[in-house]
Amino acid sequence: MTIKVPIAEAKSDFAKLLKHARQEAVIITRRGKPDAVILGFAEYERLRRLKAYLSMVDLSRELEELGVTATELYEASRRELEERPW
User: The domain containing residue 24 runs over which residues?
Assistant: First the structure.
């Protein structure tokens, strides 16, 4: 169960909230409205990977609409790397 905690309470019981956040998200409220969320690190990493995956899907669709193939993209990026003066 996700819990909502006023910011004043969050300040005084932060260690307890961190422990709870390993299991469920903790919503910090300010004046009764959601203001921030404390997540366990595993959940944060899962969301980061999901965001990266969705970005790749969007990019893939954009490239497909432009008619750029994966092979063309690979070859162009390879050429660019090989032309760098390092």
Answer: 3-39
- Rounded distance, CA 45 to CA 42, Å? 5
Question: Are the beta carbons of 49 and 59 closer than 8 angstroms?
Answer: no
Question: If 0-12 CB within 10 Å is exposed, 13-18 middle and 19+ buried, where does residue 63 land?
Answer: middle
Look up the pTM and report it.
0.68
Using an 8 Å Cβ cutoff, are 35 and 28 in contact? yes
Both 33 and 47 in one domain: the answer is no
Tell me: do 25 and 56 sit in the same domain: no
For each of the chain's 86 residues, which pLDDT tens digit applies? 789 999 999 999 999 999 999 999 999 999 999 999 999 999 999 999 999 999 999 998 999 999 998 899 899 999 999 998 87
Residue 4 one-letter amino acid: K
Q: Is 16 left (phi over 0), alpha (psi -120 to 50) or beta?
A: alpha
